Amino acid sequence: MMSRHERDAERTDRYLERLLGSLPVTLADEEPALPLREAARLIQHTLVRSHPSFRFEERLAARLEKEARAPGSTRPDDAAGQLIAFHALAGDQIRSDRPERRARGYLLGGAIASGVSIASIAGVLAWRRARAAAASPASLRVERPA
Amino acid sequence: MFGGGREEASARPIPYDADRPAVEAARRDPGAFDALYRKYVAQVYSFALYETRDQHAAEDLTEQVFLSALRALPKFRERSEDADSTFRVWLFRIARNALANERRRSRRHPQAPLDDALELAALTPDPAEQVASAEIAGRAWAAIAELPDDRRQALVLRFVEEMSTREIAAVMGRSEGAVRVLVHRGLRSVARRLG
Asked: In total, how many domains does chain B have?
């Protein structure tokens, strides 16, 4: 039998599925408490994905390309960290392609490039700019054409 | 305690990894790894940035992860024949391991405020709204930064990487129930800090 914590956690999980998937909200009695919902919405808007600088991305791409073309370079590397035995998840459905998700905003070297329009993030951006006025300028990220 | 992933998964359909064609292409021609790299570089970098709170450290970790993944790709293929893995989960497992190794080496956790790591420039909405929302966001970042590692990582994987509970469980080596509790408690801690 599930504890209260586990039931609350399941309720929160269902709420996040709807929130992050932009799905319709259901009955209020299935919702987690208001402070938790507010925290979830705030985190949704403040924890955004960042993109590395164009310079870094291209430098690493070149290094990977060189590595890939080196003879014997892609043999299994035991030093690569623990490779995973997924047998514990046999029969499992791991969905990495989630078409129901809406596009997220990105921070590309200092600016939100696409996705949701978020007033709070705009505020954060301005605030950070004011705070970081003396800091070195962030490299501008140029978005590649699709 | 929370019901193992095996039981929860038993009624689920057979997995399909959307990256499998790209993984197979990269296995045949390592030069084709670039497609996987381009698809996931921002995801891995974001995870690294939220964990290290330092752009250079995040870049180092990202580089390490993709080099390891490229070298180990043949091994992943062998494992993936069981059809119970995805490339993305595997990649984030490598990232977590690399992060843990790095922390063991340096013997310290990041101390910098989370917002200092995010080099953000300005958009231009209403100035009063900027100040109010920025203050709240700053408090949210501070609350998230102070969470225990596993709760913070679960939140980042859930919100930033938009992983399902099942994927996070696979990345973190926990049951789905345990991940749900981690996320719930993480949110509750943040809510308490914001309240």
From this structure: 2
Residues (pLDDT < 50) of chain A are 76-102, 109-128, 131-146
Burial of B28 (C-beta count, 10 Å sphere; 0-12/13-18/19+) = exposed
Residue B63's CATH number: 1.10.1740.10
Q: Inspect the interface and report whether the beta carbons of A95 and B67 lie closer than 8 Å.
A: no
Q: What is the pTM of this model?
A: 0.71
How many angstroms away from the CA of A28 is the closest CA of chain B?
Answer: 18
Query: Complex ipTM, two decimals?
Result: 0.80
Which helix H or strand E contains B153, and what residues bound it?
helix B149-155
pLDDT grade, residue B158 (50/70/90)? very high
Q: Choose one of B111, B143, B163: the last residue of a domain.
A: B111
Q: Which of B161, B156, B17 is nearest to B86 (CA)?
A: B17
Does B121 contact A110 at a Cβ distance shorter than 8 Å? yes
The pLDDT tens digits of the residues spanning A90-109 come to 334 334 444 444 455 555 54
**Tell me, what's the pLDDT at A85?**
39
Buried b (16+ CB within 10 A) or exposed e, A30-60: ebbeeebbbbbebbbbbbbbbbbbbebbeeb
Residue B2 lies in a domain: no
